[in-house]
Amino acid sequence: MDGSENRQIARDSLFVMADLRLPGSNDEHRIKVRNLSAGGLMGEGAVRVSRGDEIEIKLRNVGWVAGSVAWVQDDRFGVAFRDEIDPKVARASVGSDSAVSPLHRPAPREARALRKI
């Protein structure tokens, strides 16, 4: 895909904070998420990443998402997610029922009970 094709992907401008982990490190770096789509995001921060780096980003209400750095320009960078997410979940208010991703929804109470073996 060239740059003009990438612009056809729906994305929303927003400003939320997220945590980023680099390969081989458990250190977390705080970044700003400038825009977000199902397939990726544009981030900004002091952390130095390189094109092709495999990274993980902890998005609000979603959790850790794996991806790779697609481009870098100054302190901004693009990330392509390994698996698509629902960006509406990341934009929802923290703690609201709509903020819980279906993939991260807690099991019903009876399913969480300890089983006797």
Description:
The protein is mainly beta. It has one domain: Thrombin, subunit H (Beta Barrel), CATH 2.40.10.220. It is built from three helices and six strands. Strand 5 and strand 6 form a beta hairpin. The protein starts with a helix and ends in a 5-residue tail after the last helix.
Proportion in β-strands: 35-45%
Going by CATH, what is the homologous superfamily? predicted glycosyltransferase like domains
Biggest sheet descriptor: 6 strands, antiparallel, barrel
Report the radius of gyration as a whole number of Å: 16 Å
Counting helices, strands and paired strands, the structural category is mainly beta
Q: Going across the major beta sheet, what is the strand order?
A: 1-2-3-6-5-4
Text of the CATH class: Mainly Beta
Shape: globular
Which architecture would the CATH scheme give at its second level? Beta Barrel
Give the mean pLDDT: 81
Q: List segments where confidence is low: pLDDT < 50 over at least 5 consecutive residues.
A: 1-5, 98-107
Percentage of residues in helical conformation:
10-25%
End-to-end Cα distance, whole Å, is: 53 Å
The number of strands is: 6
